[in-house]
């Protein structure tokens, strides 16, 4: 069957930036399984899957606006280093949880000086155009329960069984 909204698709992907550097890949691991039409995966990827069938292999470019969105400079914050004292040594690249007006947020340390720490709350892939290599493995209709929940239940398992 063709991929459409309300189908469940399993697929392998490799995602690269425009320079061709690999960012992530499912190849060699479990494939990604997604319910189409419920924003389980980024918009541009969902669009590229529509009408494909099991066995299809293809490459697609997805601009940042249809991937992880644009970068927001206001999500960069420089803070006094003493605010991080309880964490011990703070290093560039560390991922931290920060309490903000919008609730708990994941931030990445991008700069550390003697006095200050700069953190970035943007998604690491915000503002980046992506290239995906996709291989479709299986396509099936979603169950009524999956449609009601808006996500996939693998192997007929239900949320109530505590597997989510
Ligand atoms: Zn569920």
Please tell me about this protein's structure.
- The structure is a single chain.
- The protein is mostly beta strands.
- The protein has two helices and nine strands.
- The strands form two sheets. Strands 1, 2, 3, 4 and 9 form a five-stranded antiparallel beta sheet that branches. A four-stranded antiparallel beta sheet has the order 5-8-7-6, with no helix packed on it.
- The longest helix is centred in the N-terminal third of the chain and has 7 residues.
- The chain is elongated and about 60 Å long.
- The chain starts with 6 loop residues before the first strand and ends in a 15-residue tail after the last helix.
- The mean pLDDT is 92.
- It binds zinc ion.
- The site of zinc ion has 5 residues, from loops.
Average residue pLDDT: 92
Alpha-carbon distance between the two ends: 27 Å
Q: What percentage of residues falls in helices of 4 or more residues?
A: under 10%
**Unreliable spans:** none
Helix vs. strand class: mainly beta
What is the gyration radius calculated from CA atoms?
Answer: 19 Å
Strand content: 35-45%
Give the biggest sheet.
Answer: 5 strands, antiparallel
Bound molecules: zinc ion
- The H/E string reads EEEHEEEEEEH
Number of strands: 9
Shape: elongated
Q: How many H/I helices? A: 2
What is the compact description of this entry?
This protein has two helices and nine strands, in the order E-E-E-H-E-E-E-E-E-E-H. It is mainly β. The longest helix is centred in the N-terminal third of the chain and has 7 residues, at about 45-50.
